[in-house]
Design brief:
The protein is of the alpha/beta class. It has two domains: 297 residues, Glycogen Phosphorylase B (Rossmann fold, 3-Layer(aba) Sandwich), CATH 3.40.50.2000; 180 residues, Rossmann fold (3-Layer(aba) Sandwich), CATH 3.40.50.2000. The protein has 20 helices and 14 strands. It has an eight-stranded parallel sheet with strand order 1-8-7-6-5-2-3-4, with helices on both faces. Helix 1 links the parallel strand 2 and strand 3. The two termini are 18 Å apart.
Length: 484
Amino acid sequence: MIHETKAELVTDKELKMLVIGNPFYFIGGAPRRTYEVVKAYSELGIEVKIYIPYGQLFLTKLLQTIHNIKNQEVYSTLRDLEKSGIEISSEVYTQLEAMEEEIWEHYIIMKKGGVRWILENLKKLLFLINKRTVEDVHAFIKENFAKRKGSDVNLIYVTDATFLDMIYTGYFISEALRRKFFVLFQSIPLTSIKELIAEEFWHAKHFFEKNIFRNIIRTFIITIEKAFFKHETFRIFNHCAKNLAGLLSVSDAPIKIAKLDEWAYRRGIPIRVLRPGNAVNVELQKYFKEREKFLNSKEDYAIFYARLDVVKGILEIPFIAKHLQQNGYTMLLAGRFDNPNVREKFETLCRVLNVKNIRYLGYLPDKRLWQVVAKGKVLIYPSHCDVFPLVTLESLFLGNSVVAYNIPAVSSIYRDLQVVKIVEKYSWRKMAEEAVKILKTNLEKFVEEHKNENLIKFLELHSSWKNVAKAEICSMCEIMRDKA
């Protein structure tokens, strides 16, 4: 049975946590969440030690090299956590320094070898990383928990179930301490093969390859890859199940899509969906305090911002923009195209449809992006897959109404908000029509809708990482008490 847990801190003793996660916030949303929540634990008076598996350090250093991120940013993340009272295992610094040359060598070889080399050698590289991950976690256990030293840890918590190395690390440490561990889902670990085939085939048919045979081959290859990963993920989950105390999730989406509720129920593993499961950037909170000011200075344009790829719905945008154009409205587009083929297809669709009302702003730094969003009236968000749509949350803080597809994450989190209009998946025209209705709404009525008491309470709940941390701790303590 899935329970929702609200942010009420309920503990009857001092807590000592061992967090297994990646806190390097500059590499993605999940690490950013880990970084913020771990700091919030410390502010709540919880004693926290964080262990970063070798595989996560390797991934961080590789992405640092690819994106030319300075070493200073890597080490400042660790120092910030230590200043907040978080204990970091000492070997992390040693490992980061030791792998500097190794990562650079791998990166040079990968660049020279290209895609072919990566495909031929990826499994070998992953095997070496996983082998080193296992060796390092055993060394960590020996160093920190020898002769039951450190066994007063109350909670062992894996903050991202996406990475199987984190799951294994949690399992090994729980075995050593003879204490069960908790896992958080920030993404969807398993996808329905039936849904995957339908989604992939639909996109190929409408946007990429008109040749039906090629569509089938492409979909078949992707399905085989996903099926293999699903099998491996279930194998590891089944292996670790006996040591799992409970599953936490930032929304209903990972649980429902992966059908983990059925899997967990059969094994007696409790599930908690967190309320709130996420919070906004601290700098966005000032907009919340000044809502009255920017709500009254709105302009009649729509905006879409996210990672500009097929999953986020970028190829539906030209069709939606065309309808807005016919009604005299402009659409702003912000973000980065990671795939040149997707960008080419997007631009082709705009030419074929004669769409001229899209203003592409490129990738914008946060502060500039928020200024643009705060002046708009509606976020159009045709995402096909999400776990917790932060773009939607940010837009609500910035005074935008939202039109989105009825995917589980959106329905789970935003269904009770009047200013979020949810339409059937793939319904471009309905999405565009709802956006036009919002843009035609007079400013007085628009402002009144955004002063709704239910919306204000929702924003207050999601305005603090402490609220998120409290929801997590409350969930884990509740599960432990139920099992006592």
